[in-house]
Structure formats: C-alpha cells, structure tokens
Amino acid sequence: GREAQREFDYFKLSLQWPGTICASTRYCCASNGCCRSEPLQTFTIHGLWPDYDDGTWPACCRRTQFEMDKILPLKETLDKYWPSLFCSSSSTCFSGKGPFWAHEWEKHGTCSAPVVQDELQYFTTALDLYFKYNVTEMLSSGGIQISNGKEYALSDVIDTIKHAFGGSPQIVCKRGSVEELRLCFDKELKPRDCLTTLTNGIVSRRKHCPQYITLPTYDPLV
Ligand code: 5GP
Ligand code: 5GP
C-alpha cells in the first residue's frame, strides 16, 4: 500500500471570484454555477486545503467515497456558497462524480487529519470559516467597493485583508482579474499568513497579479 502521508502544517481556505471564472469557461452546466440567471457579486468557496510549510501539499489521502447521506443537512448551504461554477470531465481522486465540493473532500479533505476527521466535519469547518471571515465584506468595509471595470491597487486589497483578517492572503489572478483569494489558518483555525514563494501574496508567474487588478461582475451566460 501507499505510505502514510505526513501531517499537514496549515490550512488554506481558497475562495473564488465567479466573475473571473465564468468569463473564461464555456462549460456552464449547473443552475447554481455559471448558468445562473442572477448576478453573483461575492466570493464563493473553492476548497479548504491542508498545506505543508515547504509550499507543497498532500492530495487524495484516503480511499473514501463521498457519501451524500452524511451531509444532507448542509447540502442546501453547500450548493449556495460552494457552487460548481463550471463542469468538466476532469477526473477526481476516487469516485469521479458528484458536485465540486464532493471532489474537494476527496482530494483535500481526506488529507486534513487529525484536525478534520470526516466528511461532515470537513464541510462544517469550511463553511464556518467562510462565514466567520467574509472577505467580500472585509473589502467593502475597508473601502474597496466592488464595481465592474474598476481597478484596485493590489497592495490596497492585500492590506485591507491583512488588517481585517489578521494574516496576509494569497491572491491568484487571471489576465488581470482576481480569480482566487486564499486565507490561511493554523491548526487551531486561527488566522495566519499564507506562505508564498514571492512576496505580497502573489503565487506563480502564470497566476501573477499585476499592480492593478479588477473584480469583474459575473454576467449570466444565457
Ligand atoms: P492550479 O494549478 O490551477 O493553481 O491548481 C490546480 C489544483 O491544484 C487546485 O485546484 C488545487 O486542487 C491544487 N492546488 C493549487 N494550489 C494549491 C495550494 O496552494 N495548496 C493546495 N493544497 N492545493 C493547491
Ligand atoms: P481542484 O484541483 O481545485 O481540487 O479541483 C478543480 C476541479 O474541479 C476542476 O478540474 C474542475 O473541473 C472542477 N470544478 C467544478 N466546479 C468548479 C469551480 O467552480 N471552480 C473550480 N476551480 N473548479 C471546479
């Protein structure tokens, strides 16, 4: 069998900006995702990810199939705040079907022990952190009113989050627009800095954010 994974060092809560993601996908398939008819001007959940301090991360740690029965009371909330924005045939770790969040449990959730032990706890933890640290609200109360076509200084966005959250975020861009904003937590789920190879919360060259960034409005595809 496979060697046991070493325990992770910290959590990363990855949030996605629908306006950026939906602008570059043709695979709209779910009514709560890029096919929705209402605008969505808020960050939604991508995943709660266990990470190592060296910049790598474990994935697909336990062969456990996602079981819908275990999280039925959360389903409505998950569909709303953790929508599958687009669909693709890309494979997941094990079962390869189900909503986006089921895939996130199999890929990342199964590597979250001993802090998170099972499916229900994984989704409860992710939702709790998402509601407790509302980045869309942090930005607006910090004076960053999100509006289509407007440009924001990357440093203002980072400083606003740092100030409100208590740790520096990681920001991922796609062609100058914010694709993801990630918050990091220690194993007691207290805010901490995200580790990045470059300074100021910028990830790789490919996902590099320019000095001025946009948060485009999601436009229904239909
Ligand atoms: P991408 O190459 O698009 O940035 O990431 C592809 C996938 O790799 C993500 O959807 C996620 O599952 C995983 N991934 C990317 N960056 C990180 C990270 O910093 N931590 C963890 N745990 N997974 C990541
Ligand atoms: P990750 O590698 O981030 O753990 O998983 C990303 C995969 O989930 C993508 O390959 C994509 O096919 C699927 N997926 C479904 N809905 C979404 C979504 O809303 N956002 C992202 N980033 N991926 C999604």
| CATH domain fold name | Ribonuclease Rh, Chain A
Bound small molecules, deduplicated: guanosine-5'-monophosphate
CATH architecture heading: Alpha-Beta Complex
Backbone structural class: alpha+beta
Give the strand content: 15-25%
CATH superfamily: Ribonuclease T2-like
How far apart are the termini? 48 Å
Ranges where pLDDT stays below 50 over 5 or more residues in a row are none
Instruction: Quote the average pLDDT.
Output: 88
Q: What's the number of extended β-strand segments?
A: 7
Proportion in helices: 10-25%
List descriptors.
222 residues; alpha+beta; Ribonuclease Rh, Chain A; five-stranded antiparallel sheet; two-stranded antiparallel sheet; 24% helix; globular; binds guanosine-5'-monophosphate
Structural description of this entry:
This protein has 222 residues and is of the alpha+beta class. It has a single domain (10-214), classed as Ribonuclease T2-like (Ribonuclease Rh, Chain A), CATH 3.90.730. 24% of the residues lie in helices and 17% in strands. It is built from 6 helices and 7 strands, in the order βαβααααβαββββ. It has helices spanning 18-23, 75-81, 100-107, 119-132, 135-141, 154-165; strands spanning 10-16, 44-51, 151-153, 170-174, 177-185, 191-192, 212-214. The strands form 2 sheets. Strands 1, 2, 4, 5 and 6 form a 5-stranded antiparallel beta sheet that branches. Strands 3-7 form a two-stranded antiparallel sheet. The chain binds guanosine-5'-monophosphate (2 copies).
